[in-house]
């Protein structure tokens, strides 16, 4: 039997409940406790709030009607509303909510296990100047649940039975063929759901409610938590022609200051699938590129020009890290702040060819192996499933004698826990189309890039900068980042994570992404970063955002 879990918006997915906001408003304005609830009850189903929730009127139309209703009921009771009474202020307060992260996490786990999730929301068309609060709520809901049913568009409100049946129909589920669970704090809606044959859970304690979800769905929703990720089929894709025959593909999500994510080898925009929604939810426009193996930083400038973006926050991993450092050095006017995962800013030495340096360091043997066109391509493209399974398995072995990258590796390796089957198939699909020639050209263009960089003036990095090393990376060792302070003038922040980040970045890079953003934005925005951290399951104190182990260079 199919299963679905339906969540009430107020008091479950977000807090506080509307009724709690009513009570707080009554206290602060000096109105008797329960007055607003009494107004709604006395006027029955045609009261202004219910008409608003059913979409009969917009919020600006409703406010004077609601205030008139309150004035009338107050007069009937021989009362006088205080001068500070303002329905506009009340509904602005209602939009200032926090998300109940445990329920967002539970919804994500349920969706990964194929269970349909839905939010039923008694909500309105907000056309006021304070409408950003409702917009923020809806944006987060749409990215976390299969379906969001808004009463103002459905024409019915909780606890009317039609809103439940409508939700199941939109999920393509028939009531008699599905086990539907409903969560709410309101007793009236609990009874309504049970009357339709649904299993209802009245939420009085979050922990107990989650236990009920575990029991009813037979899924442990509090374990194996991951942040929401991008579905390639449900995210905006775009293309920009850089020059004849060269086109860059990118994913675009969110609205706000632009953040550009640059992946490493052998990856794609998909490597940032966990970071993209987290950054977008925090109030940023996120652009994740499919990096071309034969481009340079001027290609990235052309991309920004054609997108009409004057300046960005750059975050790179592996080869993407090398690119963002180059951008910060050679095109500083286009970079607001810069962060690199694993790849340090290496000083350019005009006297020593980088290829000779590679030959002297055994852990870089694989880069020498990659130099011969066609050789590495043949090995990597022979069996893409095997290639990506091995790429996502940590290994301390180096490519000795240049005999092959995977020599001695099993023909049918197990899939790593950090690589889901769907993610594996997506990588296979992408590289079936593109092959490895472009990505391998990152390694083959090193000498040309070195000559170009030697010809350019090189100053210190002047904008805020973050360097993140991975304590268990056997290739890009944390020691390689030592001395970077001399290359950065303003502020260099360090983080060391005891994981292998030279493998494609998954969850942990969320931390580093937000660190650089706190450097580049004003302090009043701190709460946005904290909220985004919490959505991703990362525990941080406010002080973590206001101070960090850093080196200031003046």
Automatic annotation (TrEMBL):
Reply yes or no: does the keyword Hydrolase apply.
yes
Q: Enumerate the UniProt keywords alphabetically.
A: Hydrolase, Signal
Q: Is the keyword Hydrolase in the record?
A: yes
In alphabetical order, the GO MF annotations are: epoxide hydrolase activity
Q: Which residues form the AB hydrolase-1 domain?
A: 257-479
SUPFAM superfamilies in the record: alpha/beta-Hydrolases, HAD-like
Protein family (similarity comment): Belongs to the AB hydrolase superfamily. Epoxide hydrolase family.
* Protein name as it appears in the record: Epoxide hydrolase 2, cytoplasmic
Source organism (scientific name): Cyprinus carpio (Common carp)
């Amino acid at each position: 039997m199919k299963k679905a879990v339906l969540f009430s918006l107020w008091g479950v997915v977000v807090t506080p409940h509307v009724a709690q906001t009513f009570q707080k408003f009554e206290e602060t304005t000096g109105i008797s406790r329960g007055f607003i609830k009494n107004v709604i009850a006395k006027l029955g189903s045609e009261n202004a709030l219910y008409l608003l929730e059913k979409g009969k009127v917009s919020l600006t139309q409703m406010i004077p009607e609601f205030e008139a209703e309150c004035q009338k009921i107050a007069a009937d009771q021989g009362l006088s509303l205080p001068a500070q009474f303002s329905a506009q202020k009340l509904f602005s307060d209602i939009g200032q909510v926090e998300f109940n992260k445990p329920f967002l996490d539970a919804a994500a786990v349920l969706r990964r296990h194929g269970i349909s999730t839905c939010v039923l929301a008694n909500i309105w068309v907000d056309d006021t100047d304070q409408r950003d609060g409702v917009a923020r709520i809806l944006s987060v809901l749409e990215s976390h649940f299969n379906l969001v049913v808004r009463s103002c568009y459905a024409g019915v409100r909780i606890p009317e039975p039609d809103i439940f049946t409508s939700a199941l129909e939109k999920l393509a589920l028939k009531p008699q063929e599905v086990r539907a669970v409903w969560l709410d704090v309101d007793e009236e809606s609990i009874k309504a759901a049970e009357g339709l044959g649904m299993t209802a859970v009245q939420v009085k304690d979050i922990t107990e409610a989650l236990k009920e979800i575990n029991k009813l769905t037979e899924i442990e929703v509090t374990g194996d938590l991951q942040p929401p990720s991008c579905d390639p089929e449900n995210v905006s894709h775009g293309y920009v022609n850089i020059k004849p025959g060269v086109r860059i593909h990118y994913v675009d999500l969110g609205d706000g200051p632009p953040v550009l994510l640059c992946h490493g080898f052998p990856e794609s925009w998909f490597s940032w699938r966990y970071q993209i929604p987290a950054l977008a939810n925090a109030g940023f426009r996120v652009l994740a590129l499919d990096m071309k193996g034969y481009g340079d930083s001027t290609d990235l400038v052309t991309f920004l020009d054609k997108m009409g973006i004057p300046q960005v926050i750059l975050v790179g991993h592996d080869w993407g890290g090398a690119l963002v450092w180059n951008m910060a050095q050679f095109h500083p006017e286009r970079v607001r702040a810069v962060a690199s995962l694993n790849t340090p800013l290496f000083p350019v030495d005009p006297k020593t060819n980088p290829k000779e340096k590679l030959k002297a360091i055994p852990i870089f043997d694989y880069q020498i192996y990659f130099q011969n066109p066609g050789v590495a391509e043949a090995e990597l493209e022979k069996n893409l499933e095997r290639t990506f399974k091995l790429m996502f398995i940590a290994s301390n072995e180096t490519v000795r004698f240049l005999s092959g990258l995977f020599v001695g590796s099993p023909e049918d390796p197990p899939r790593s826990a950090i690589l889901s089957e769907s993610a594996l198939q997506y990588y296979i699909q992408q590289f079936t189309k593109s092959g490895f020639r472009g990505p391998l050209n990152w390694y083959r263009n090193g000498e040309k890039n070195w000559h170009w960089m030697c010809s350019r003036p090189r100053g210190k990095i002047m904008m805020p900068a973050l360097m993140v090393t991975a304590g268990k990376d056997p290739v890009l060792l944390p020691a390689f980042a030592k001395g970077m302070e001399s290359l950065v003038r303003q502020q260099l922040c360090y983080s060391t994570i005891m994981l292998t980040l030279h493998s494609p970045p998954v969850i942990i890079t969320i931390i580093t992404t937000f660190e650089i953003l706190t450097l580049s934005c004003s302090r009043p925005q701190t709460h946005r970063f904290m909220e985004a951290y919490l959505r991703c399951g990362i525990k941080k104190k406010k002080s973590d955002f206001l101070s960090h182990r850093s080196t200031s260079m003046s």
